[in-house]
Structure formats: C-alpha cells, structure tokens
Amino acid sequence: MASGTALLYDKEMSNYKLLWDDPACAIDVPERLVSSYERLKHYGLLERCVRVPVREATVEEILLIHSKEYLEVVQSTQFMNEEELWKTSQNYDCAFFHPNSYRCARLAAGATLQLVDSVVCGRVRNGMALVRPPGHHSQRNVSNGFCVFNNVAIAAEYARRKHGLQRVLIVDWDIHHGQGIQYAFEEDPSILYFSWHRYEHQEFWPNLKESNYDAVGKGEGTGFNVNVPWNKIGMGNADYIAVFLHVLLPMALEFNPELIIVSAGYDSGIGDPEGRMCATPDCFSHLTHLLMQLAEGKLCVVLEGGYHMRMLSESVCMTVKTLLGDPVPQLYGEMTPCLSAIESIQNVIAAHAPFWNCFMYDKLTTVEEPSTKRESGDACPVPQTVPYPEACTDEAKKADVFLQCHMTELLLSVPPVRTAAVLPPQSLLRGVQVEASTVAVEETEALISNSGVMLVKEEAMLLSLGKTLSLLTKILNKQIRNGIALSPAASLSSVVAVKQSITLGFQKVLCIAFGDVDLGKDFSDDGKTMLLKIGGKQNSEMSISKYHISLSWIEDPPEESSFVFAVLRFILPLAYSYQPDIVFITLGAERSISVKGISLLACFLQGLAEGQTLAVIQDSEAELAEAMAEALTAISVPHFASGTPATTEAVLAIKQERQRLQQQWKLLQCSVN
Ligand code: X5A
Ligand code: ZN
Question: What pTM, to 2 d.p., does this model score?
C-alpha cells in the first residue's frame, strides 16, 4: 500500500473576488484559502506533506461534465468589464464572476485531477486539494452557489474514463446539498454519491425537493444517490458520527469503492454563518479516519465551502493531520444524537432498504410527520452545546472564543513509537518495535494475585505478562501509541493488564474479547470498564449489565458480513458512546470471527482513545498477530467487501442487545420507534 499525503495548493486561486455589493456572495473571500494554508504551515503540517504541483484542467476534461456553451460563457468572462461580469452573474443563483475566475476555476479542477492521479497511481496514499472556487453546486450549464466548474464531479468522471475505475464513492460533508454532483451521476451506478445538508423541510437554500431522502437515484443509478436532510440547525458531532456508522459506512463497505473523493466543505462546523451547525474540528478527524479504512486508503479530500475562518482553517488542519496518520483526538461532547437526526437517519435507511443488503433487516417505515416539523427554525436541542461565554451573542465570535481554547486540547503529543510488541524469542513483526523491558517477576506475581486470578508460575507466562505491563506503562506515558502482546495465556494476561490500567490511572477501559476468554467475574460494574464479548462460548460467569455486554450468534462457517454489521452498527456505536481512554482487544483461542474482520475492527477502533490500543493475542494465533500488526501500524488496511447480507441469527442477536442498551448508549439508536 502506498504511503504519503499529497497537498495541492496554488496561491493564484485566491486571486479573484466579489467586485460588487451582494450579501449572498460576500462570504466567499480569498482569505478562506490563504488562512487555511497559513494554518497548515503554522502546525508544521505542510512540510510533512508531498507537494504536488497544480495544473489547469484541459478543455476536454471540463467537458466531461459541462456543456460547450457554458464553457464558452465562462471563458468570455475573462475579458469582461465589471458591468458585464455583473450581468452574466445575474443569470445564475448565487454566483459571481471576476476576470480571473476562469483561470482559478481551471486550476481548481486541475488540482483535483492531479490529486486523483497521485492517489490512483499510488504515488501517495491520500491527499487534500485546497481549491477555490468550490465545485459541488455547478451543473452542466450553470454556475451556482459560488461554484464554476464541478471539480469533484469532473474528477470522478475522469477517474472512470482515464483510470478505468468501476466504483467511486463521493462523500459530500459540506452543509449544502451538492445538487450539481447529484444531477451529474443520478443515473450512474458506478458513482455512489452521499450528501448530508441543511434542509429544514426545503426551507433552506437551494430549496430543492430533490435534496430530500427520497431522491435515491434514477434508472440504473437507483440506490446510488444518498441524501441525508437535516431538518434542524445545531447538528453536532454525535449526529454526524451516527450517520456515518448507521448509514454511510454500511453502504460504502457493500459498494466497495476503489476510490473515495470527499467534497469537503467545513460550513458543516461550528460557528459557520451558513450552516449554523455545531460540529467541532475534531469531528473532521473522525470522519476522515473512518473513510481512510475503505478503498484501501485511497482518499482524496477536496475543499468546498467553509466561511468561518478559524473553524475552516483548524478543521482543514485536523483533516490533513489525520490523513498523515497522526492520532485522532477524542471526540468532543456528549455522544447523544438528537431526535431530528435520528428521524432523518430512519428515513434514509427506509428509503434505501430496497437497494442495499446492509439495510435488509431494517424493516422501517419513514417518519411522515416528523416531531420536529413545526419548529423547523429552532436548533436541535443537543445537550452538548458548547460552553459559550454567556455575554456573547454573536455566533461566529462565540465559536472563535471556543475554538481558541478547544484547539489547544486537541494538539496531542504524538508518541515517538507507533507500535510495539511483546513477542516470543526470535520472532518479529513488520514495522513493530520489539518490547524488551519488563517489570520485575515479583511485581508481576503480585499483580496477578491482586487481580484475583489463579497464580501461575509458568516462566514464559510471567515473562510475557511482565513485558506487557511495561508496554502498558509506555502507552500511558505516550512513549508508544499502541501495542501487541502475544501471550501463552491471553485471557489471564488481559485480565491482569486491564486491572493494571485502571490502577495506572486510565478512567475508562474498553475491552473487546473474542473466543475463549474469561472476563467478567473479576470486574465490577462501576463504569471504569466496558466489557464486550463477541462470539465464543457464552460466558456464564459474566453478569449482564450496561457495562458487561455479550454478543454471540451461531454461524458455521462464520460470515464476514454478519461481523461487519456488528462492527458498524453495534460495536462502534457502543465504543463511541462510551468514549474510552484505552482499548483492549483480547483474542483467545477458538475465536469465531475471521482475521480480516478482526483487523477491520482494529483499524476503526484506532479512532478511539487517541489510538491507544493494546491487542492481547493467544500465542498460537500467528496469522492474527501479523494482521493486527498491519492494522495497528497502518501499513495497510484490510481489503474488505461485504456484499452478502448478514445472517438472520446475527442480526437478531444484535437487535436484541441494541434494544436493551440504546437508552444508555445513545449512538446505538437509529430509529425512533
Ligand atoms: C460551496 C458552498 C454555498 C452557497 C450558499 C449560497 N456554496 N447561499 O458552500
Ligand atoms: Zn457549502
């Protein structure tokens, strides 16, 4: 798998602006681009990226999406005087032309194509293009919403024609509906278009009926257009994550894209005057990280909107930092999606259930009379709303003050070692540092007996455990990000290590156990640990509570798609709701889940607890240890497609547990009834 992150930027794209007075267009200022770029420099992110030169898109490339007549109109604006420019602009909705618009629009599209080339050809793993003008509103014949050429649509079509790709996923996290992209591909099953957008029952710009959840695509493309309408302002981190876990990611894993292009507008973040939503910059790290686990990591992020300068530039930095592989910060705030968001999720799932195996068990009906309909102007009553200074009334200013403090918390120290491992003598894992230090045998013995597990005197076991505990301390001290411990007794090792992590001062420990592992009787229900046991023998000693969760289904041979269903729609929502500060993955013998499935989970779980993960693996599981090393080092992401539906048994087991737990762990909710 390729490595490196591309960055595309040319100052030239800030050399055009609105020349007359028009309040609707005044927010698209050149500073958007410059301040994002300066911020990247400030954090030292720029020099860590691979600089790829920007070029102009050719006329043929622009014609992949736009008409010759429209291209000629845009070309003619180069030589117009101000009055002619104004007149031409008035032919479109929320558009403005400047003598340099054509040049910048060609550079914006060209930069996007350069990014796609770099990623598809494997010169880099992923990348971001900082471009202006944005693209997702522009259409075959029209400029719209500050957009001139549809950069992302051109790039997706180009990826198909030039590189022969058969499946491209476009994720549009801008707060406006990219209707231009929808129109370009609504009959095309090879391009899956996903967009969430402020909608307010069609009262928000561009006020289109076809921005609603029931616009699912047409003809051959039916099912390949996904709209998530937001009917309230104030949507935040929990709402966005819920949509990714319950809607986008299940479809994306089933679609199995070869490339992902993000229409990355940051007007969906806090403080933005257009979106009026609440997502904080760390949320964009999570969205990026989740998408990095698909399409073998081939991810192209392309700037669209974003009109709050600080929010925009900080979020661009969080995105690039994540693309570079830095640890993902904890997601800010209470993980409770609001009612209006859950209604939207339910409606999207209901609308798409006929076309996707991942939704075939969601026998949902749409919510026809949403509870939120009457007061559509109100903000969604999200409890997490940011602690603004009371006296402040201006939303943008409030966000500014908030971000000033918040960003310093997000700048984590990056551990110098990514992955270390406790291994039997003479063994190695690629990209992994071998842990040599250990705590004293007496100390290990004392910890074992304190843990209440049977004292073992076997030397290999004590040695392995001693090193594991040393590794744990290094994770706590941020010397190492994550680790792997091969153990002759994985179950016992993890009980001792989990207990020790609480002693060391971790507040919330998530432990996910597979196979023949005995957990539970040793842990109380005080919320300091969440135990999640998947498959294997039902653990009779494990009491069931909101912190002790057991999930197993009978399946022979194991179906990967059932496990994917469990990961996206049960395990990750639970993990994100709990917000652990360290994650254990315990793998005993006789696991019932495939190696690929477990490594996919490990990849996603690195978005939690700042990536502090410790995998404790039974030493007989060599193949699993290797896959885990690849996942934790991010040397590669597992190639994973889940075309077949989950089994009825698995879904039933998951649904039952979801019913039991969704009042406590609110990200499990995906329907209102
Ligand atoms: C790219 C983008 C917004 C247009 C808003 C018009 N355009 N009211 O965010
Ligand atoms: Zn926008």
Answer: 0.96
